[in-house]
Amino acid sequence: MRDASLWTERYAQVRAATMALAAPLSDEDCGAQSMPDASPVKWHLAHTTWFFETFILERFEADFQPFHPAFRVLFNSYYNGVGDKHPRPQRGLLTRPSMAEVRGYRANVDARIAALVARGGSDAGLAALLTLGLQHEQQHQELILTDVKHLLAQNPLAPAYAPRGAAPASPAAGASPAWLRFDGGVHEIGHHGDGFCFDNELPRHKVYLEPYELSARLVTNREYLAFMQAGGYRDPGLWLAEGWDWIRAQCLDAPLYWRRDGGGWSVFTMHGQLPLDLDAPVTHISLFEADAYAHWAGARLPTEAEWEHAAAGGPAQMFGHGWQWTSSSYAPYPGFRPAAGAIGEYNGKFMVNQYVLRGSSAATPQGHSRASYRNFFPASSRWQFTGIRLAR
After folding, report:
1. Confidence of residue 124 (pLDDT cuts 50, 70, 90)
2. Other Cβ atoms closer than 10 A to 231
3. Residues 19 and 61 in one domain
4. Could you tell me which residues are beta bridge partners of residue 300?
5. If we measure between CA atoms, which residue out of 56, 65, 80, 64 comes closest to residue 1?
6. What are phi and psi of 162, to 5 degrees?
7. Is 159 within the bounds of a domain?
8. What is the dihedral of CA 58, 60, 64, 70, to 10 degrees?
9. Residue range(s) defining the domain that contains residue 39
C-alpha cells in the first residue's frame, strides 16, 4: 500500500483521539445510556472498532478470525446487510464486555490494521475504506461528547466532564445582527475537489436561488431569552403544528440544559453548571424552536443551498460554534447513488423525516468540517450542539 507510514500515523492519531475523549470518564460513566438516541461511550469505542474489523479486516485480512463472534451483533449499529443488531435502546444494558475487554478489542484490531497496511497491497478499495473508517470514527468522537453531556446532565450533582479552561469570553454581539446580502441566480452546491466527502454530498449540481440575506452571526442566548420572555413558548401562532404539539407534550419553555437559577438562568455545560453566557450562541435547540424563533424575529431559516452558497463568502460563526438548522428536508441530490452493499447504508436510507444542518460545532473534531457537509437529525432533536442562523 502506498504511503503506508502516513496511513499508520493518521490511523493512530484518530484512534488515540477517541481514547483521549474517554480518559476523563470512569468505567461507570462509559457504560451508561441516558436515552435511546444516545449511546454509551463503551459502545462508541467498540462500534468504531467493529467498523474496521467488519468492513476492512474481514475483507482484506488473510485467514480472518473475529476477535469475538458475538461482537458482530452487539456492536452493529444499523447495517442490515451485515446481519442482526442489538436493540439500540438497550445498549446501556451491555455490562459485558467490560471496558477492559473493549480496550483489548481496540488494541487487537489496531495491531491487525497496522499489519495489514504494512504488508501493502494493490486494492484501491483498502485506502477508500480506511478513509471512510477514520471519518466515521471522527463522527463518533463528536457523538461521544454530546452523549456524555446528556448523560452527566441527568445527574443532580451536575458533574463536570472536564475542568473549565481559561476560555475567552464571548464577544459582545450587539443589539441586532447585521445582514449579509447575496445575489440570486444559478449556483453550484455539493462537494468538489479531490478531498474526502460522504456520498450524500454528491453529486455537485446547479440550484437556482432568489436574492437573499443571511445574518452575519448566530442567534445568541440573550436574543433567544428575549423570545422566551416575550411569550414565544406560549404563542401557537409562531409554531409549526407538530412543534406546538411537541412542546406542549414535553412541557418545554427553554432550550435543553437551561435551568432557572434564582432570578436568572444557568446552563449545564461540559464543565458543570455555569451562569448563562448571554452573548454566546444559543445551542441545543430543536428545528421546531429554531423555526418559531425565526418567525418571531421576522425572518426564516436558510435553505441548505443558501447556507452553502453563503459559506464561500466567509460569514462569522459558520463553523465551530453550533450546527445550524436549515429549512431543507434531508433528501438525495439529483443523481445520488449509494454505494453497493452494506456500506451503502451509511447515509441514503435515512433520507426521510429529517432536516439538514450545516456547519459544525465546538464538539466537531478539527478538520472534519467543510461547506458541503450535510448533517441531519429529526426536527425534535436537541442534544446535539444545534443553533440558529437567520435568513430573509
Report:
1. confident
2. 10
3. yes
4. 391
5. 56
6. -150, 155
7. no
8. -10
9. 4-153
Query: How many Å apart are CA 281 and CA 293, to the nearest integer?
Result: 14
In three-state secondary structure terms, 214 is strand
Task: Tell me how crowded residue 1 is: count the other CB atoms within 10 A of its CB.
Answer: 18
Instruction: State the DSSP string of 120-179.
Output: --S-HHHHHHHHHHHHHHHHHHHHHHHHHHHHHHTSTT---SS----PPPPPP--SS--E
Mean pLDDT value across the chain: 95
Q: How far apart are CA 11 and CA 154, in angstroms?
A: 34
Q: What share of the chain is helix, strand, coil (3-state, %, to 5)?
A: 40, 15, 45
**Which H or E run contains 386?**
strand 386-387
Question: Which strands make up the sheet holding 264-269, listed edge to edge?
Answer: 258-261, 264-269, 272-275
Residues 242 and 318 in one domain: yes
Give me Rg for the CA atoms of the chain: 22
Other Cβ atoms within 10 Å of 197 Cβ, number:
17
Amino acid identity of residue 195, one-letter, is: G
Task: Tell how strand 179-182 and strand 258-261 pair up.
Answer: unpaired
Joined grid coordinates for residue 331: 433528501
* 3-state secondary structure at position 188: strand
Run of H or E including 309: helix 304-311
> Which one, of 221, 390, 386, 217, lies nearest residue 318 by Cα?
217
Structure confidence by residue, pLDDT tens digits, 306-331: 999 999 998 999 999 999 999 999 99
Return the amino acid letter for 387: G
Residue with cell 445582514: 179
Tell me: do 196 and 146 sit in the same domain. no
